Amino acid sequence: MAKRIAFGFLWLFIGISALVFMNTWLFLVFAMFLCFTATYELNRSSGLKNKPIMILSLIASALFPVYYEYGNYLQKIEGLNLKTEYLIVVYILLLCFLMLHNHKETKFSQVAFVIVSSLCVPFSFTRLMYFRDIAEYYPDKGYTNAHGMFLILLILFSACMTDTFAYFVGSALGKHKLCPEISPKKTIEGAIGGVIGCVIGNVGLYAVYNNFIFDNPVNNYIPIVIASVILSVVGMCGDLTASLIKRNYGIKDFGNLIPGHGGIMDRFDSIVFVTIAFYAVFNIFEVSI
Asked: Model-level pTM?
């Protein structure tokens, strides 16, 4: 337990440091590390033994944040049309062709899993960079760097507050199992507590920013409450999905990078889903905060 707590605080310090330096190259390095490590953990969990596929997927995932940061320069190269969708198509084709190497031990299901792990997971992490730069994407709405930090914290709060409240409420009041075959300890009462805790945490966060940090507060709490409910449910479903993946592959944790906690994906599984969901909700409804 002592080791679990110590490493928990260590990674909390690392996470806070990354947020403090989110407008520097250190944040890019941190994002590359998360993408690389998470993809490696997922690929390894599937039993992938095809080294060329593993290497290519790790390179692609690590370069995903770099492409987000500097990809606009590629668009300016004359004679080339390096749109994102074209690069993704080429990448998927290369992965399929690399199945020919060690084809006796390489299953298509593993390659499909690699495609998801090396594209969806890095896409999620780079959305944090997108929200960091929200002022550049919506200059007409008066967003500032403070809004970028708030949106990132909203994502992290949605995942962490849901997990925390679900655990404590479930431990104290849980009687009805939520998904006993996937995660025996999760209860319906805990899930409800997680949603309520997420709403309370996010509303409190918004109140602090609205009253003390934002230059032009909007006092638009309803979208925050609605988004909190959605993100809380998505976070729990993401956590259950990760648990199901581990059960399918017969593993307890995705990795052991964080002693007592597992790997990067064991700590960031719900955040991956919450980030993608919030990116979709935010852009579909173009919510003003």
From this structure: 0.89
